Amino acid sequence: MNILIGKDLGRYHILEQLGEGGMATVYKAYDLRLERNVAVKVIRVDQFAPAVLERVLNRFEREAKALARLTQSNIVHINDYGEQDGIPYLVMDYLPGGTLKEMLKGQPMPWQEAVRLVIPVARALDYAHRQGMIHRDVKPSNILITADGEPMLTDFGIAKIIDDEATVDLTGTSATVGTPEYMAPEQVISKTVDQRADIYSLGVVFYEMVTGRKPFQADTPMAVLFKQASEPLPRPGQFVLGLPEGLEQVLIKALAKKPEDRYQRMGELVVALEGLTGSQMAGAGKKLEVLNNQEEERKEAETTREVQQRLTYHHQRSTKWGGWAVLGALVVLVALGVALGIGLLNMGQKGIGPLANLANRTSTPSMEATSAAIGSTRTRPVDGMEMVYVPRGEFLMGSTSSDKMAGSEEKPQHTVSLDAYWIDKTNVTNLMYAICVSAGACQVPSTSASKMRSSYYGNSLYDNYPVIYVSWTDANAYCAWAGARLPTEAEWEKAARGTDGKIYPWGSGSPSSRLLNYNSNIGDTTAVGSYPSGASPYGAFDMAGNIWEWVNDWYSATYYSQSPASNPQGPAMGQSRVLRGGALNDSGTGVRSALRYWGLPTNSAYNIGFRCARSSP
User: Fold this and answer.
1) How many domains does the chain have?
2) How far is CA 77 from each of CA 27, 124, 154, 162, rounded to the nearest angstrom?
3) Which of 475, 527, 490 is nearest to 390 (CA)?
4) Would you name the residues annotated as active-site residues?
5) Would you put residue 418 in left (φ > 0), alpha (ψ -120 to 50) or beta?
6) Are 398 and 502 within one domain?
7) DSSP 8-state class, residue 332
8) Can you give the pTM of this predicted structure?
């Protein structure tokens, strides 16, 4: 079908191919009359026997007219249809954001974002069902993404046109048309399906979004279909830690083998999904806060002996120096608030990293202290990280229009109000991350080397250095394991620069090697907390230079022009996640607190790490 590129179908000049499936090819085209780009879906007539082709074309025209009447806001609108030289085609809005399949790339997304994306698709399907139309091929490649990050459902009716008339299926023989991994069991058994088949298919899509994998996979289409019909659903929580029980229950019901055991109408699934957002995401989440508090109490209830054994085990694996196991025990004892009259530990670098801080403390505030002020700290029991307090209030985010160092993505500067929160005093270290790996909750970093050191992660000499070669997904998993989360972009920037628009954490004075590790003056990472003079107004270290830091937000260059004034969470979706802080190889302009950078969530590098945050009750 690529022979169409450069040619005209009616008034549409074909520019390039956007995608191809077994039954249709999608092209980007230019509408010569209205002078705009459109998407043209061309049915592959070579897949039909000559005896049925005329019926297919007649049915295609009737269905195209019916599809054009679907006007719901999350359904891609049919603008035109036609047939030329025996080739039928549909004309739709051109959406440059790609597909949900391209966005997922085999990786899970935070369940909250998955819920936000699935709800509009479920509403679109509910609308179509009430118009008497069943989709029958719901899958990530049929969910397009707008430039604003909104999901749009496409390919309504195409599967029905093909399935009713013909001929070829997934295996090359005559059977039902569909995509095996997303097909309801009854689609294989009977051609008579109803809206509950779409409920099952959307359930598979939702499952894939939150776990990064399809529930049933096999080497052949028929083997997949057999699993869909016979094998029990793998529990989502075994692939992603921390999924709410309510979310798992929604998936189990949507993916029931028997149609009568599922949600009976798409509207019921919408209500269930909205219930998740209401009870566990929105409104500052009283239920979520209770769950967090219960989890925190559980972690704090761990005995000194249990935590000490875990740290000792790690050090015995990573080094022959028995003294480090003793140090691990000291860290835990200090984290539990035991008074220790010792000075700073010598970690091979002059600094005030988490281990040194813990050893120097004489008491540890409760993780759930009800009153706090600037300068307050508390220690996270599970990994020994010290957190600093950032009070509720407004701050100036971004850069001024006259700032020549700043790009447009940092503008306009705007006032943002944030609720109180706690943020890690330093980056998460190799030692802390190794505890998570030992617990089975984290993946080993993609390399054990740093820029210059052939041995880094797992080498006790660098236990107090920031963990690197971790992706956004890795960082997100660690923070969840630690009973925290990645900070939002706004939380990170306020913690870095304070309330009055300082250029750097220490103020507006020029950077120097006394304040941070930057401009390749050392050439590799330094121990966390090595530059106390460069601390932020709230006492957070290393928020400029050393390593870039993942934050939670999706990246959008235009987000500041539409960002809410209170507790902004970033765009609802996107391709890349935000990175902040600059790194060891960046110049003075590259370590400004307002600087925004980005990376794919799966990326990792020698100069990327993270820290965690937690909302204050």
Assistant:
1) 3
2) 16, 12, 8, 20
3) 490
4) 137
5) beta
6) yes
7) H
8) 0.47
